[in-house]
Amino acid sequence: MNNDSPDTSQFEAIRARLTLQLHQVERDFPPADLPATLVRNQMRHARAKAALDRLDAGSFGRCCQCREYIEPEVLHFDPSAPFCLDCQAEADLRQRRT
Ligand SMILES: [Zn+2]
């Protein structure tokens, strides 16, 4: 049992940490006006549009990162995939870290 009253001199630092945490969560999970499905759909739309642009530009099938050819099975699974397997794995890692 802890009967000590909270150390009020720490409150400003704690408030700052909680505010930061709140902002981080809001950034990762946008509030209700942007449902996750809408965000996903916008991303899918943007990916598809970019892939169509690459088709027109003649660069379709090349990785947008390393410019190597994207593995055929990747494009078969998702024609809008912008990256080869290696670069996609790197991008996933980066996204998880942020
Ligand atoms: Zn690549």
Attribute tags:
about 100 residues, mainly alpha, Four Helix Bundle (Hemerythrin (Met), subunit A), about 60% helix, binds zinc ion
Largest sheet: none
User: Do you know the CATH architecture?
Assistant: Up-down Bundle
List low-pLDDT spans.
none
N→C terminal distance:
38 Å
Number-wise, the strands total 0
Overall geometry comes to: elongated
Going by CATH, the homologous superfamily would be DksA, coiled-coil domain
Rg, rounded, reads 22 Å
**What's the CATH class label?**
Mainly Alpha
Which ligands occur here? zinc ion
Q: pLDDT average, as an integer?
A: 83
Strand content: under 5%
CATH-assigned fold name: Four Helix Bundle (Hemerythrin (Met), subunit A)
The assigned structural class equals mainly alpha
H/I helix tally:
4
Q: Bin the helical content.
A: 55-70%
Write the layout of secondary structure elements.
Blueprint lengths: L10 H18 L7 H22 L14 H6 L7 H13 L1
Bound molecules: zinc ion.
What does this protein look like?
There is one protein chain. The chain has helices spanning 11-28, 36-57, 72-77, 85-97. The model has no long low-confidence stretch (mean pLDDT 83). The protein has four helices and no strands. The radius of gyration is 22 Å and the shape is elongated. It has a single domain (8-97), classed as DksA, coiled-coil domain (Four Helix Bundle (Hemerythrin (Met), subunit A)), CATH 1.20.120. It is mainly alpha-helical and 98 residues long. 60% of the residues lie in helices and 0% in strands. Zinc ion binds at residues 63, 65-66, 68, 83-84, 86-87.
